[in-house]
Known about the structure:
Blueprint: E1 7-12, E2 15-27, E3 30-36, E4 42-48, E5 53-56, H1 59-74, H2 86-99, H3 104-112
Antiparallel strand pairs: 1-2, 2-3, 3-4, 4-5
Amino acid sequence: MYSQGETFYHSVDDKELELSVVENISMKDREYIIAEDYDGELRVFVYDEDEEEIYLLEDSDAMEIIEYWQDEYMSGKDIGDYEDDEYYDREDREYDDRYDNEDYYEEEEEDYY
Length: 113
């Protein structure tokens, strides 16, 4: 099975496409690969463990997988606290005060000449 970020080639409608893996997800006891081509079109493949092959899903089935992926993976709540943490605000103010010197570069240039 392909990993996220990996590129592979697959024939779609008699055209060889270069696809980049966006996500691997498991749903309904099956493993799916969501891949994107250079035009930004998402394609969904099902991974057959027995044959170690991938098969392109039909559009209706693919849309169901893509919608599930977008709901569960893409629109999940951000678990990071970067925006809510005051530590970063304090750190930014500290560095702004320390390095917010308009003459910083002028002083540096004078030292070299």
